[in-house]
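Render this sequence as a predicted structure.
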Amino acid sequence: MRIENVQVLKKHYPELLDVIGHSDESERQDTRIEEAKNQLWTMAVLKETGWNYLHSKYNPIQEAERFVQSMEDVGERHVLFYGVGLGYHIDLFREKHPDATFSVYEPNLSTFYHFLEKKDLNEWSPKRNLKKIMVEREPADCKKNLSDFTNLLREEIYLAVFPSYQRIFEEESKRFFATFKEVVYEARQLMQTNRIFAKRTAINGFKNIPHIIDTPSILEENHGAFHGKPAILVAAGPSLNDEIERLRQIKKSGSAYIFSVGSALNSLLSNGIMPDATFSYDGSVMNKKVFAKVLREGISQIPLVFGSTIGFETLPEYPGKMANFLVKSDYVMRLFLKRSDQEGSDYIDTFMSIATLTLQLLAKLGFSPIILVGQNFAFRADENYAAGIEYINPVVGEQKKVNALQVKDVYGGTVLSSRLHTNMRKEMESVINSFKNMDIINSTKGGAHIEGTVFLPLEKVMEERLQQSNIVESDWLDKHAKMIPYDYDHLKRFSREMLQSSTELGKLLNRFQYLIEEMKQLVRTKNRKQLEIQFQKFDKLFDKLQKNKFNLYLIQTINNVSFKLIMKILDEVRLLPDPVSKADRVSKEFGNYLEICSEDTALLTALLEEMYKKVLGQEILV
């Protein structure tokens, strides 16, 4: 390996140096370097069919030119090259797009080692243009490499696959494409979820604190009160339609607690069945729609067991009794609420599905067996949801069928499932696995198989497991959910401290805004000397920003993804030699981030003052 490349790897890609350092000569016997007809190097890989060439044996440059010409509409996108070879195509791409950023993925360690013998990585501007190098040593590396790559990648990705790689590394290529599709989907889902719910989490936290304090906690129940009691967890899958009459019988006999999750509440209500409680913790504004019928008709007989992250619009108007549980991801509750009895609070994990969360909660309370009904995690013919939910179209669209996955069903055959449902099912299976000897029965006809459960139709469950009547206590919530004693002195003290910190943060952000405006002016005049001074001021202000509690605990938390992107940009900017280019990028990117922080500071300060007044009946004073 070239000495220059050792230095580049040490400085910019140390994790890759570890991978390459563990290779030995025997791993490189299946590749060789040869001289092409035009006296440039080419590379051959030994396969069952003999030696196969990654580049043309005659003119590798001409071949690379054709490939780069085929790369249309790259635009501003980040290019991921699958297949490095000896890098001819990447060199030509760099000539055509000198400012473009790109990353490389090499599925074969042996070929990459030969590349490092012939090519100086410095020519590709490590970190400034060449962002990431990924090399696959074993199949498991593919998912990790791509997960790390998509994490915090700001630009849209242009995938450029060198043609010979699909032919020579057929198995590796298929794995890469499947994993790439999966990982990019997950990354987009994560980014979208963070953007949508980050601020909602904080807003819901402040708005819900008064309701958490004023309602009992379901997790504070009398020890063992529900131990060994059967519970039916009703989800809104299409198989729920088959079980309505049986659920009606169970409700009438009181042979098991019936708990609904999500939209299943409306399907039950449309059939005249009132569950013993409904569970919810969805933080979106759409959560209130689930309870529209309950609110409209003033149905007060159904207790609502809500998570602290629930959309705040639902709680003030709910006509029935309520109990709460704290959600582990709810950082606002963790900051402001402490118990006065010095006991630790119990938290429920955050999940994609309210059904999985409720399953964990019921298991903690000791319910057994837990019987799943309407938990399809799959399509059933053309149906995706149960009937009787006025705001949901239960029919599966054709595009969803096209993109569907085949998964094992409860009968041992296969059924179509969406990627989201498949991920939710795997998450539930993980929870089930965490509870040893958990008695869970899946009574969902035609649904996906859920590992850790036993499939038994509900009629059989009724015959074999629900023979005892009247086990449901009509006043179970009043008897068993308890109020948590909260420390009001801590709430006062911490709220005042945060208000003071918010005031200081506002002043700090104003100073930042002024500094950014000065930078923009100096960029226009290309005053490099003054820009260097401005960067020194920037660093000092940034240090103060990182010590401000309101920023660290709240603003930075709700803008976590944006903040990580800013940190990534600042790291990249440090490598730029020209202060004008550095200042131009910082003023644009960090200026946008500052605007967001200023808006959020004003919003959360107002919410803090509102919460304080509702809980303590007085204005907050610093």
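Summary. The longest helix spans residues 170-214. The mean pLDDT is 90.
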